Amino acid sequence: MELNQVMFFLLSGLILIFSVLSITSRRILRAAVYLLTVLLATSGLYFLLNYEFMAAVQLTLYAGGIVVLIIFSILLTSHISHKFEQPAIANVLVGGITGLVGCGVAIWSILEFPFTPTTQPALDVNMQQIGMHLMNTGHLGYALPFEVISVLLLAAMISAIIIAKKGN
Description:
Helix content: over 70%
Shape: globular
CATH topology of the largest domain: Four Helix Bundle (Hemerythrin (Met), subunit A)
Distance between the termini: 56 Å
Largest sheet: none
Structural class: mainly alpha
Number of helices: 6
Number of strands: 0
Strand content: under 5%
Radius of gyration: 20 Å
């Protein structure tokens, strides 16, 4: 077994284990840290696939931005020791059945899709062009959507803090 395969199985195992831990944890801060681990391992998979740009976006936007916002929201609302109550058995059953059906549909879709290798050569990656698109606000530019998302995240964080403070 090659090192790439070992790393793939290691990262996949981390993603599976910490995904389950993040949704089954009853402590909110632990769930956020488990989510951070899942996002970091996902960026590791992107690095294995030689998608360096996608891995960088995963690290900066998701692992670096959203999880930090979640953790700051938890810490600012003084609910760091909050422990969720045990869910009802009916909710656990419905969630488990839904998860199994979703896994079945995903596995069926993957097995039924005819994956054929392409005969076209690989595209050249021009990092300068990607950087210009990220900074541009015009056609094919991504600066405006990033600014809109940052305002949306700020509004979500402020509203979460206000809602959490009303309970105190």
